[in-house]
Amino acid sequence: MARQGQKHARIGSTCSRWPMNSLRQNPLPVAETAWREIDLSAIASNCRAIRAAVGQGTKIFACLKQDAYGCGAGKVATLLSEAGVDAFGVVSIADALAVRKAAPGKPILMYPGIGPNAVDLVRDLDLTISISGEDDLAGWLATGASLKVFVKVDLGFWRAGVAPASLRRLLDLCASQGNVAVGGLYAHLSEFGDAGSPASAQVARLTPLLEELKTERRLPETIMVSSSESLLHHPEFDMGAVDPGALLFGLTRSSAGRRVLPTRPALLAIKARIVALKTGHDSMGTPPDLPGFHPDMRLAVLGIGWGHGVPRHLRSSASVLVRGRRASIVPPIHLEHLRIDVTDIPEAVLGDEAVLLGSSGAARITLPDLAKAWNTDETGVACALRESLRRVGVAQQFKPNQKEGE
């Protein structure tokens, strides 16, 4: 009987690891099996760094693609509107709705993606659309609506945008329509690296056209070619406006850039709880012939999987942190669960936090570390996370002598 009592006591102490007492006061992340932690103050800080770099004379179009790079378009738009950004850029109507609700008076540029069937929403939300060619323009003109447009130019990205040789004709067509107001002209520079044209060559395709339009007094009010990477590497391309995206969220850092900005990631952590623990046994059969499985291993199951945005296929070195120690991820990844090997962490119990990104004790998994394990880059991690992985707002703690960006 004493032994049975001891067993019940151990079970009781294990269950007490689940932090139930604070559930009513703080339902997230206590009530979740997986969540991400977002530091909105980092986004505000990054925005200030960008403003200091480009100056007051250059507009900032805050690019909030993919639900503000996974940070929540509505909350981020509120924050950046208060921080003084001049306008926003989005791709989806869902993001446009969230931004318009959060920032009623700010211009919103729709990057290529929506079509004339969305004309009623364009009107109701007071959106500026992108025009990439004559067919594009014709479709919108067929709606009969009054349109605010930016013309997009393809300088070598081989994506959306009118070819430089056709730009003047497209602008002429826009000018011939009484219901079309061209407020800007913009391009996104190629990200092909050595496989594409250098940034300077791309901009050189546009510069003579801009000079001609200026001489003819037909130059649109806003000219914009610089997003995150070009903003870091080519200050001379700031022009009338810039549209940083990844840089606002601390997802791109270039030590070789001509500008080195003190940015820090807004995505601080990805965490999950241990929802099951078991030790391998002969009655379960032979361990699967997969990397990481071995007899008598102690497995922990985490409440996170590819349904939350974790890739189905990870590098064999992928791991998480439990109680300050590394635990290997054991494939395959499932919709709502993944396994980790806690054989060497005997103190791990139900309800423990497992850290996929962030710190546990003295150990840490950085965003570049996670990107490598997930076979992507930092932006790829942030934008792959799904709505099912709830967001929790946290504030990063700095030491008194620590500078932003460290």
Overview of the structural elements:
This protein is an alpha/beta fold. It folds into 2 domains: 164 residues, Lyase, Ornithine Decarboxylase, Chain A, domain 1, CATH 2.40.37.10; 210 residues, TIM Barrel (Alpha-Beta Barrel), CATH 3.20.20.10. Helices cover 30% and strands 21% of the residues. The chain has an 8-stranded parallel sheet with strand order 4-3-2-9-8-7-6-5. α5 crosses α6. It is elongated, with a radius of gyration of 26 Å. It starts with a helix and ends in a 13-residue tail after the last strand. The N terminus and C terminus are likely disordered. One of its GO terms (cellular component) is cytosol. InterPro entries: Ala_racemase, Ala_racemase/Decarboxylase_C, Ala_racemase_C, Ala_racemase_N, PLP-binding_barrel. This is alanine racemase. Keywords: Isomerase, Pyridoxal phosphate. Its cofactor is pyridoxal 5'-phosphate.
